Amino acid sequence: MTVFAGQGDAHRSMALLWRAPEAPRAGRSGPKPGLSVDAVVTAGIAVADADGMAALSMRAVGEHLGRTAMALYTYVPGKAELLDLMHDRVLAELPTAYDLTRGWRPAVTDWADDALSCHLRHPWVLEISQARPILGPAELGVTETLLRLLQGARLDPARLRGAVAALWQFVRGTARTTAEARTAATATGVPDEEWWHARAARLGELAPDFAERFPLLTALERAGADGSGDPSSDRSREAFRTGLAVLLDGIAATAGRGGPGEGGGS
């Protein structure tokens, strides 16, 4: 399921994201003590973390808080605006400062690890399309942080945009595959080991010349670098680090061709 952010009222959603004060609305009583925008957002995240995006509704959030759905509308106009606030709150978990004394590459590696872990804590975020940003302070802060870390690579603006996009999509893509693998057995009722065994055995029957037809893939599998199995395993984490290193190698190389000064070194 793909959900588009920014589908609520633009004025109110942006005001809530940036915590701008709003004029009192005539005919509506003030908030009851003990509830706040932050409390509603926290409850929304708890519901989505526990039961997924499909379970998120104003009613479910209200029940989590021991209130009715109607009681929440004093604080958040609706589910669309709530989703924007939840998304930005999750991104606010990412650090905004990293140690650059060892160079830009280790700092970007730490950022990528943190971003991957954040998305795996809240896998429902991966269902929110990146086609339209919510333009919240945390979302913009994530990009600002990554831009700051990449300053040492000395990329020109076009390459810098490409590097940010590639890193962000690599992290989100890895997180999505990992999150899906964690739920596949429960969702399908078939354990991973059983699934792989059944299909590997059948493949051997249907393609006895598999090694001759796919020699490079066979060699990769024999080297233990196929990446199959649970993506949350140590091997898959290592695959993530290896893929990230390839991306960073590319950033360093392109900086050496087009960037001023000392190029892509750390």
Could you walk me through the main structural features you see in this protein, from its secondary elements to its overall organization?
- The radius of gyration is 23 Å and the shape is flat.
- With 266 residues, it is an all-alpha fold.
- Among the domains are: 10-21 and 32-91, Orthogonal Bundle (Arc Repressor Mutant, subunit A); 104-186 and 234-258, Orthogonal Bundle (Tetracycline Repressor, domain 2).
- α1 packs parallel to α5 (79-91) and α8 (157-188) packs antiparallel against α12 (234-258).
- The longest helix has 32 residues, at 157-188.
- Residues 23-27 and 258-266 have low confidence and may be disordered.
- It has twelve helices and no strands.
Attribute tags:
266 residues, Tetracycline Repressor, domain 2, single chain, Arc Repressor Mutant, subunit A, flat, mainly alpha, 12 helices
